[in-house]
Design brief:
The chain is α+β, with helices and mostly antiparallel strands. Helix content is 50%, strand content 21%.
Length: 437
């Protein structure tokens, strides 16, 4: 039997039983649509979480910290014992060179921290002071709200939310809160403090000028003031009362920028192998991806259960069809049809039911996904506006391969469901089939 004749025969047989085929295909439609909607929902949630994290953090950055060993016992005055962490790998000047030499590294920046009181007239705040090299902000492509990314002696760049942290210490309870000050171009006073053994405080004031204000990052920069690393080192040296030896003590942190996002995980492992502690937002994304992969499998399994129920329906329909068409099968064999020809006809009909249901399920699943996506995005955007979070980019995402996979899977389910009835039809004896009533 030629292929074209086989296809015509299959379509003709399906067309003679339109109502039964349609009712059987409904189960496949529902199962296929469930697979597409549920898996698309899992993929959409994963993409949304990844985009949210990627929009907050630069995924090419790796934060490198010294590796502190276990608490080591150390003798102290008076015969007692104390415990202090032993540094196993400090971020020294040589360590910075080792980090920069790793393949895939675009730049390495040491960082230091300080704290103190910042005054603007009567207003004061206690922001985080971060010391970085002068080209740190420009190399990492920080966006500016106004001003410039210039870091020089006495010049600082402040985060978008630093102005929100200023308050009036002499404000009376019945007075309204003062509005956030305009910091751009303002001259601030940074006051550092240190204490002697008797608890006496010594203060030192450093004048600074705001050269730029960063755009909102929804991350560490929003509440920080960036100052040159040399100035922060000088402040910390004064506070400690002794020179800071970077070749022995190193820096409290370094930031490594990878050349590409795809190199971040491998680069993070290489940094860990050097003895340092490495943290990158990509580690969160990997965890999120693993979680949502499991979620997609679970969702897909739920949809597959609906397809399994549909498969039973196809098997039942094909079995009943064989009982009704037993004499037809006998007649086909009497005129020369082989077992393979009969098997092909009934397998083709079962696969055809799966294909029809799969096409309907793909259309229904895609349409349902669009409706859910519109409703969910509208609701989540409202929630984000209330909480101040980032609006979601997608709630339900259907990748191009999913409809194709679902269609092939539904057709395969139909084919497998019709295998047993088709084998029964193919092995019927012609004489017995012709005598069947």
């Amino acid at each position: 039997m030629r292929l074209i004749d086989l296809i015509r025969l299959i379509l003709g047989n399906l067309g003679r039983r339109k109502a039964r085929v349609a009712l059987t295909a409904v189960g496949v439609v529902i199962g296929t649509a469930a697979v597409i909607v549920l898996v698309s929902l899992g993929i959409g949630l994963q993409r949304n979480a990844t985009q949210q994290l990627g929009g907050i953090s630069d995924l090419t950055l790796i934060q490198v910290s010294p590796n502190y060993g276990e608490m080591m016992s150390a003798p102290v005055m008076g015969g007692g014992g104390g415990a202090q962490p032993a540094i196993q790998a400090a971020i020294t000047e040589q360590g910075l060179k080792d980090l920069a030499a790793l393949p895939g590294v675009a730049a390495v920046f040491p960082r230091d921290y300080s704290g103190g009181l910042v005054n603007l007239g009567r207003l004061e705040a206690y922001p985080s002071i971060i010391g970085v090299p002068p080209d740190y902000l420009s190399t990492l492509s920080y966006e500016l709200q106004e001003g410039e990314l210039a870091l020089g002696r006495g010049q600082v760049v402040v985060g978008a939310m630093v102005a929100q942290s200023f308050w009036d210490p002499r404000q009376r309870p019945d007075q309204p809160m003062p509005p956030p000050p305009e910091l751009m171009g303002q001259r601030l006073k940074f006051t550092a403090s240190k204490y002697d053994q008797d608890g006496n405080e010594t203060r030192r004031t450093f004048p600074i000028r705001v050269a730029g204000v960063l755009s909102e990052q929804r991350d560490e920069p929003d509440w920080s003031i960036y100052m040159t690393l040399d100035e922060v080192t000088a402040i910390n040296t004064w506070a400690r009362g002794q020179r800071i030896d970077r070749n022995r003590e190193g820096y409290p942190m370094a930031v490594v920028k990878a050349q590409d996002v795809s190199q971040v995980v491998e680069l993070s492992e290489a940094i860990t192998n050097l003895g340092y502690q490495a943290f990158t937002p990509m580690s969160f994304i990997q965890g999120i991806s693993s979680f949502f992969l499991v979620l997609q499998v679970v969702f897909g399994g739920v949809g597959a259960i609906a397809l399994l129920v549909a498969a039973i329906g196809i098997a039942n329909t094909m079995t009943m069809s064989i009982l009704e068409r037993t004499r037809e099968i006998g007649l086909m064999k009497a005129v020369g049809a082989t077992n393979g020809n009969v098997l092909s006809v009934f397998l083709g009909e079962a696969a055809g039911i799966g294909l029809i249901g799969g096409l309907g399920g793909v259309a229904l699943g895609w349409a349902a996904g669009q409706v859910i996506n519109a409703v969910a995005l509208s609701y989540l955007a409202g929630q984000a506006a209330q909480t101040g979070g980032l609006p979601p980019g997608v709630a339900v995402y259907t990748p191009p391969w999913l409809p194709l996979f679902s269609l092939i899977f539904a057709t395969g389910i139909g084919l497998l469901s019709g295998l047993y009835p088709a084998l029964r039809a193919a092995t019927l004896q012609p004489v017995a089939a012709l005598k069947y009533e």
